[in-house]
Write a structure and sequence with these properties.
three-stranded antiparallel β-sheet; 3 strands; elongated; Rv2632c-like; DUF1876 domain-containing protein; Rv2632c-like_sf
Length: 90
């Protein structure tokens, strides 16, 4: 099995006042960069666990990236087929 291409996803997190923001970016082989964000908010009665906020915000950012990738692939399928196709879903 040969690796044709590799993607690197960059994630950054910011935490402030019980809120975590994740920013994700992936650079594809065709030069396109997709960016997404995810958020998490800690309930005031919950214990402070930065890692949990990062995991939730990060997962939400990655879900957004996944949706963007599906949309991009769907558009490319339509373009190559010359007609509308069924929407891709996760």
């Amino acid at each position: 099995m040969h690796t044709l291409v590799g993607w690197h996803v960059e994630m950054e997190f910011q935490e402030e006042d019980g809120r975590t923001r994740a920013a994700a970016m992936v650079r594809l082989g065709d030069g396109v960069e997709l960016r997404a964000h995810g958020y998490a908010k800690r309930h005031p009665t919950d214990a402070e666990q930065l890692r949990v906020g990062e995991e939730i915000a990060g997962a939400r950012a990655l879900m957004d990236l996944a949706s963007q990738l599906l949309g991009k692939a769907h558009g490319e399928i339509d373009e190559a087929a010359g007609r509308p196709s069924y929407p891709l879903s996760s």
